[in-house]
Amino acid sequence: MIEHQVRVHPSSARLPRAEQLAWKLAAVATDGGEPDAESAAMAVNRVIDNAAVAVASLTRRPVAVARAQALAHAATPGSAVFGADRRSSPEWAAWANGVAVRELDFHDTFLAADYSHPGDNIPPLLAVAQHTGRGGADLVRGIVAAYEIHVALVKGICLHAHRIDHVAHLSAATACGLGALLRLPTEVVYQAVQQAVHTTTATRQSRKGEISSWKAFAPAFAGKAAIEAVDRAMRGEGSPSPIYEGEDGFLAWMLDGPEAVYTVSLPEPGEARRAILETYTKEHSAEYQAQAFIDLARRMRDKVGPPERIREIVLHTSHHTHHVIGSGSGDPQKYDPAASRETLDHSVPYIFAVALEDGTWHHERSYAPERARRPETVALWRKVSTVEDADWTRRYHDPDPARRAFGGRAVITLEDGTVIEDELAVADAHPSGAHPFDRAGYTAKFETLTEGILAPDARDRFLAAAEQMASLDPAGLDALFPAVDTGAVDARLPKGLF
């Protein structure tokens, strides 16, 4: 790996393109190497994972809205849309499919200096592959390249400290993945990266307070913007340059300012792209930093006994977990029984309370309004708080993936003064966890989430195609969209503009 130092430069310095981060990202994407077997296999896993959560979300209102918008933008050859029998323009198909993938907060994650869901790169890549007649090998190459860039940016540049939403890294990664998919010149990808970053820099209010459905739309917007940026760059249009290092650019005014120096590590020319192997998916439909706490609650349940015996629960955890999904956020909505699903899946006090009561977690039942409003649940929920623990913060940022931890320690005090403690560093499904996800795990998740939605033959056709993804011809990519009863997923929606 090469460690690239990134800082602000005055316009008078005329920073050469080859020294700009956007160019270095584009150069990695256009290096021309093919993924190794492990990375290619993980790309297949993530396509299966995305399809599982997309199909499970098809009847949800935000997904139906995005689908209706996409279907108003037909194109030839166009791109497939989950839950539809017509094709749409690729940027709109990416929009609809991106919302479907993100709606349940149930696909893959990577946490480091910042947050990310690298699987959000896949819908725009798949849409463009279909529209441009690329095959499975091209798609795999694009996915692996996008993950490589996404992970590098998330490791090197923290957006959250400045309340910038993490989709700014996503759009850069998607532009790079599209460059690898289409084998575009480095110059074109360089311009597209800069356009994409410039147009997708937004605040984190989408994940703060009363969280709305925009949390699902935000990454889809970034993917759509990246496709449009690539299209403009292919037509010869330029960009705000240098987008990262410019004196009025991203680092200078959105992040740490003119004196800051960031380190972004990227592979050398010809080095294998293996960052996708550092990422991980979710066993439970909730913010990733709550995954280990769900498993910990299930493990502690028998020791604790009836929840009404509990006086207090304190979760000792990292800075990020405490401030983003814990009581350190200062968000009263995280304790509100009338809060939206999007808010509840970012409330570790709610999640721990329900997991402790139920001993399980379900992507719909655990968030049902009647579930959140149970008096006994509300009483327990309000006994849960989080505190930042310096050791858990250090472990969260450990440079060694094998030692990195995203969990914490639960201290439960009963009414009689008995204290019950336990801790869990990573979720059971994490690569370092008790039951790491493998291909069988991804397949089982797909089968569980699509039960009652997909016919068995449709499910089997999809899984067979996904297993052979790298060898699919352009027409074969259609099989990555399992057939559903479109009438069953149609929804009555207010009329929009389209």
From TrEMBL:
Gene3D superfamilies: 2-methylcitrate dehydratase PrpD (3.30.1330.120). Residues 284-467 form the MmgE/PrpD C-terminal domain. It holds the Pfam family MmgE_PrpD_C. Residues 19-260 form the MmgE/PrpD N-terminal domain. Signal peptide: none annotated. InterPro entries: MmgE/PrpD_sf, MmgE/PrpD_sf_1, MmgE/PrpD_sf_2, MmgE_PrpD, MmgE_PrpD_C, MmgE_PrpD_N. Belongs to the PrpD family. This is MmgE/PrpD family protein. It comes from Actinoallomurus acaciae.
